[in-house]
Write a structure and sequence with these properties.
heterodimer, A: alpha+beta, Aldehyde Oxidoreductase, domain 4, Aldehyde Oxidoreductase, domain 3, seven-stranded mixed beta sheet, five-stranded mixed beta sheet, 20 helices, B: alpha+beta, Ubiquitin-like (UB roll), DNA polymerase, domain 1, 2 domains, 5 helices, 5 strands, 30% helix, binds FE2/S2 (inorganic) cluster
């Protein structure tokens, strides 16, 4: 169900748009539905060798021996590598984005000397088949003298805590120190209501259905490296691999085939992918590695694992006066990215609310566990903690959580607004989405009904998550995206885009944008993506940018091609360009459609009759463009409200309704928008209710199969209801905003708050996750122990 | 390690190969038959991405050995479209309902749903959800997939839980 509320003032759609805004069926589906998608494991390279890894089964310890003699002698084994063979070959392991920031991130290809988390790769075997490589791995004997690991982030900065990275002064990975803020101190001292709470978020995993994988081929003659990799962008991989191997970028070609989901996991190549590249370089033979699911759950980038202590002050009517937040984030041993809390969460915390006195501190720490990655909205704990806090405040004030938000929320009337974290919102419809979602779910009626249910002993609750989503971040490595639009001599268009899809439907949405500008049918526009030999440079996906940055580059290039076509036809017909339009593949005189040329005729002329072109119009029909948005962030926002019922006996939580009101600007394709919301919401629901990556006391991960690591299935998920508010974003010509991460950010607090509301009559306090059945039963028992 | 001969019919074509007994049916289809539409999402029988039809029954090909398939008739995602090459009703419904994003889980879902609707032509919403629960998708939140099954079954528009809580 979708409610589409056109927002009065600035409803946006391209003038004369035929495809933008429509639920156009996807171009890419035909190959996926028939088994003809081509993922990295499907790439056939003659003579390819297969890699497998022996890994640490100890969280922290000293490697005393490695015996690979049996493996080396096995038939079919081409090579066995240990740390000394590979680690010093590399020149620089940091990807572009980080290199630009001068940050240090601990990294090594294979563990040598010591091990720092379970699953760390120690030995790589390369053999004729994956079966043989794994047989050889089974024969390798590794001696490790274990020492007590550091597992808890809360302990990481204790003076007696084990140091994860030998030789480092402490376990601190990133920090924003607490700062003096006299204004805030004054507010906290005088405010009638001041509340402090600490919230926790557990560790979960990033589990795209396709795991990581790579095929790499070094060709000694031409001295060229070709890499096929499951990634989020080929260009960053290319420069990283070139830098690492001491090659020129021009010696490296990276191809991103179809990618089976990524969600931030595949932003950066990790140890294994780099080891494979070294192996092909050393052996002169192609090498392939496809991660298995156990490896993914055992030691690939983990997600979340946060803690925040929040203090908020209000007047006695619940009007926010100030806030203070201290984040503590667990980064594991070898994080895949820089700390989210220090870079982003701390600044985004004020979110959609009006207040100015604010201070934030953050610490990100290492532990002897798998490294933290950039899972969909990596900074999202700011929203989780803030929205939980709003409900805690509401309870303390005796004000309904919806009403408390109404008193503080920013809306269009407040814009522009300099929020307390230092960003300026140029646009915000948080108030509007709050009202739309409340109306869709029938908030007031629910509250009435809830009284009756509570009287019957049913535990039914409602929860709100309000979200401001920073999208299309444009800075440094991520400042721009590019496109080339080319209409060939037969009148069909290719779009070469710097971005590539791993589920975002870009072959369809970018084609929609370009088709509208060119007056072609979507079927006549082909989007070419994911090959450094064919496409313009770009950072890849990340930070929900595709609808804003690369799509705009494609739009602007298409506009230029359009203007060339108009100029050519104006010249031929001796008409004014202003009198021409492009309709259904024809450039024609407005009002006299018989006077005109088809795009194919224009294209043929542009390529084959150079003398007949007007002056100043380039030969051919091709243009390139590079786009940067008008500001650092394109702000999107959404409100999620859900209703849950808790079974007091089993602790099981069932989601009875789930409503999302979203403003992602002008929608290119509502199906794609709703699909992105749904995917994110279900990941968020999964994170709160089912997914959990616990460790035992020795540092062994306890959920390394899908039998233990539970993902939501179709049997558990609610039917999601969507409302849309479309305000034209000021940062890009199409007025689009990103939305790829918001679902996964706002769903957790909505679900947590709903569970907390359901349990409120029992006096249970929900301050941490996950909320699986056993956790909920424990909350209920703790509450009854407190009240009895 | 000994080797064994496997003779099967895959998507209507006979195949014969000499394989190690430990070779999984999934790897046999992908590597020996070059039918890479059958995907591996877990290799331990939970995700359903590797689902194929063996003598008409939906089977996880990561859990079955190629030698166990001896003498059977197998249909993979490459053999699901109509004989004239157009998309089957289930495939078409997935496209219309936006039932896929990255497309990695899709072959497994299409095969499972094809078998399910053959056996349950008029499924209830509850039974659709239960039938789908053996396949994992990480992109769609299952919304488009559930809608695709309703569409293929012709039950679109029938009463659902949305909007009313009882
Ligand atoms: S790969 Fe067979 S069930 Fe997951
Ligand atoms: S569409 Fe990506 S896993 Fe289902």
């Amino acid at each position: 169900m979708a409610i589409e509320a056109a927002h009065e003032a600035e409803t946006g759609s391209v003038t004369g748009a035929r495809f933008v805004g429509q639920r156009v069926a996807r171009v890419e589906d035909a190959r996926f539905l028939t088994g003809h998608g081509r993922f990295v494991d499907d790439i056939a390279v003659p003579g390819v060798l297969h890699a497998a890894f022996a890994r640490s089964d100890v969280a922290r310890g000293t490697i005393t021996s490695i015996d690979t003699t049996v493996a080396q002698a096995m038939p079919g084994v081409a090579a066995v590598f240990v740390a000394n063979d590979l680690n010093d070959l590399g020149h620089d392991y940091l990807p572009d984005g980080e290199a630009a920031h001068g940050r240090h991130r601990p990294f090594r290809v294979l563990a040598g000397g010591d091990v720092r988390c379970v699953g760390e790769p120690i030995v790589m075997v390369v053999a004729d088949s994956r079966y043989l490589a794994e047989d050889a791995i089974d024969t390798i004997e590794i001696g490790i003298e274990s020492s007590p690991p550091l597992l808890k982030r809360e302990r990481a900065l204790d003076s007696d805590a084990p140091i994860v990275h030998t030789g480092a002064p402490s376990n601190l990975y990133g920090e924003i120190p607490a700062e003096e803020n006299p204004d805030l101190e004054a507010v906290l001292a005088l405010a009638p209501v001041v509340l402090t709470e600490t919230f926790h978020q557990h560790r979960y995993a990033t589990v795209p259905m396709e795991t990581r994988g790579i095929v790499a081929r070094w060709e000694p003659g031409p001295d060229e490296l070709t890499v096929w990799i499951s990634t989020q962008g080929p260009h960053g991989v290319r420069s990283l691999m070139a830098r690492m191997l001491g090659l020129k970028d021009t010696q490296v070609r990276v191809i991103m085939p179809d990618v089976g989901g990524a969600f931030g996991l595949k932003m950066n190549p990790r140890q294994e992918e780099l080891a494979v590249v070294f192996a092909t370089r050393l052996l002169g033979r192609p090498v392939k590695w496809i991660q298995d699911r156990r490896e993914n759950l055992l030691c690939d980038d983990h997600a979340r694992e946060d803690q925040a202590t929040v203090t908020m002050a209000t007047d006695d009517q619940g009007v926010l006066l100030g806030a203070k937040v201290d984040f503590l984030e667990g980064a594991g041993a070898f994080p895949a990215a820089f700390s989210s809390a220090t870079v982003f969460s701390s600044r985004l915390f004020p979110g959609p609310y009006r207040f100015s006195a604010f201070s934030a501190s953050a610490q990100t720490v290492h532990t002897n566990t798998s490294g933290r990655g950039s899972y969909r909205g990596p900074w999202m704990f700011e929203t989780v903690a803030r929205e939980q806090m709003m409900d805690c405040l509401a309870a303390k004030l005796g004000i309904d959580p919806l009403e408390l938000r109404r008193r503080n929320v920013l809306g269009e009337a407040d814009m522009p607004y300099a929020m307390a974290g230092g960003f300026v919102y140029d646009q915000m419809t948080a108030a509007e989405t709050l009202e739309q979602a409340a109306e869709m779910i029938g908030y007031d009626e629910f509250r009435e009904q809830q009284r009756a249910w509570r009287a019957e002993g049913r535990l039914v609750g409602i929860g709100i998550g309000l979200l401001v989503e920073p999208t299309a971040m444009a800075h440094a490595f991520m400042a721009t995206d590019g496109a080339v639009v080319r209409i060939g001599p037969n009148g069909q268009a290719d779009v070469f885009t710097s971005v590539a899809s791993h589920g975002q439907s870009l072959e369809t949405t970018i084609a929609q944008v370009v088709a509208d500008e060119l007056g072609l049918d979507v079927a006549q526009v082909r989007v070419v993506q994911g090959d450094t030999a064919a496409t313009p440079f770009g950072p890849g996906t990340g930070g929900s940018r595709s609808a804003v940055v690369p799509s705009s580059a494609a739009r602007i290039a298409a506009q230029e091609v359009r203007s060339h076509m108009i100029a050519i036809v104006a010249h031929v017909l001796e008409a004014s360009p202003d009198d021409l339009e492009i309709v259904d593949g024809r450039v024609q005189v407005i009002g006299t459609p018989t006077r005109g040329m088809t795009i194919a005729e224009v294209a043929a002329k542009a390529y084959t009759e150079p003398a007949s072109l007007p002056e100043g119009v380039p030969l051919g029909l091709e243009a390139q463009s590079r786009f940067t948005p008008g500001s650092f962030c394109t702000w999107a926002n959404a409100c999620h409200i859900c209703v849950v019922e808790v079974d007091p006996a089993t602790g099981a939580v069932e989601i009875l309704r789930y409503v999302v009101s979203e403003d992602c600007g002008v929608m290119i394709n509502p199906n794609v928008v709703e699909g992105q919301i749904a995917g994110g919401v279900v990941q968020g629901i999964g994170g709160v209710l089912y997914e959990h990556l616990p460790y035992d006391d020795a540092g062994n991960p306890l959920a390394t199969t899908f039998v233990d690591y539970l993902l939501p299935t179709a049997a558990e998920v609610p039917e999601i209801e969507y409302g849309h508010i479309e305000t034209h974003a000021p940062t890009n010509p199409g007025g689009h905003k990103g939305l790829g991460e918001g679902g996964a950010i706002a769903a957790p607090p909505a679900v947590i708050n709903a569970v907390a509301d359901a349990l409120a009559p029992l006096g249970a306090q929900v301050r941490s996750q996950p909320l699986g059945p056993a956790d909920v039963v424990a909350l209920i028992e703790a509450a009854s122990a407190r009240t009895s | 390690m000994g080797e064994a001969v496997v003779r099967v019919i895959v998507n209507g074509e006979s195949r014969e190969a000499t394989v190690e007994p430990r070779l999984t049916l999934a790897d046999f289809l992908r590597e020996e038959c070059h039918l890479t539409g059958t995907h591996l999402g877990c290799e331990h029988g939970v995700c359903g991405a590797c689902t194929v039809l063996v003598n008409g029954a939906a089977v996880r090909s990561c859990l079955m050995l190629a030698v166990q398939a001896e003498g059977t008739e197998i249909t993979t995602i490459e053999g699901i479209a109509n004989s004239d090459g157009t998309l089957s009703a289930v495939q078409q419904a997935f496209r219309e309902a936006h039932g896929l994003q990255c497309g990695f889980c899709t072959p497994g879902f299409v095969i499972s749903v094809t078998a399910f609707l053959r056996d349950h032509p008029e499924p209830s919403d509850q039974s659709i959800r239960e039938a789908l629960s053996g396949n994992l998708c990480r992109c769609t939140g299952y919304q488009g997939i559930i809608n695709a099954v309703r569409l293929a079954a012709g039950t679109v528009g029938e009463d659902r839980t949305t909007g009313a809580i009882t």
